[in-house]
Amino acid sequence: MSILSPSDRAVLWRTVTTSGPDDRGPLLRVLAREVLDSVGSRLNMYAGHEDDVVATIALLDQAGLLGRDDLREAFEEAGEDYEHAEAMAALLAAHLGRAADIERLGVDTRLKALRLAAAWQQHVTEHASAKPEWLTAAQVAARYGVTPQAVYKWIRAGRVQAEQTPGGSWRLPVSQFERGSRVDPERLTALKSKLLSLGGDTAISDEDLAEEIVDRRQP
User: What is the β-pairing status of strands 170-173 and 134-136?
Assistant: First the structure.
């Protein structure tokens, strides 16, 4: 395993997202391998998850979401430490959830997006200790099915309690998320999958639902 430097990952991401159809397939697989090396090895999911990582990158590309700046920036930093790896995994889960709402992808692909999103969420939440007192922004994002950027927005707005560490990272007391209802990723994914399988659709996105729950908790 050889993890690229942040600058090399930036070049790789730009090369993939600007490539033509003839080169894109092999380059997507190269990108998937680097995501697995950078993120998977940090979250103890390196072995046995190659196919899911390849499928994730291909599906996000098919959905037109791979070129997003937040994904590129997260990928550049993903190999730095566990927290950055968690942030990348949570972001992949959130954007896969968005892909599941894109009708043009078809039911089978949208169901696949939901399955992959749930897998990435599980990788983040399983990495947390059994009974943590604090959660990272990425762990909160995975719980609610949103991006880490959405959690930072809640922090800035004072909608959730958080403390900043000397290194500049945020940690959030887990107790505040146990006082009321929260999005259960597994139940939400199962519900969305059932609706899609029955030919229906979802009336509210994961992020909108999370926003509503956080708002309800405010005094």
Answer: antiparallel
What one-character DSSP code corresponds to residue 176?
G
Q: Tell me if 120 sits within 8 A of 153, measured CB to CB.
A: no
pLDDT in tens, 67-78: 999 999 999 988
Reported for 10-13, long-range contacts at CB under 8 A and 24+ positions apart, including other chains, are 10/72, 10/76, 13/71, 13/72, 13/75, 13/76
Q: Residue 149's closest CA among 170, 122, 120?
A: 170
- Given a cut of 60, whether residue 105 has pLDDT beyond it is yes
* N-term to C-term CA, the chain: 49
Contact 3, 79 (CB under 8 A): yes
Q: What single-letter DSSP state applies at residue 39?
A: I
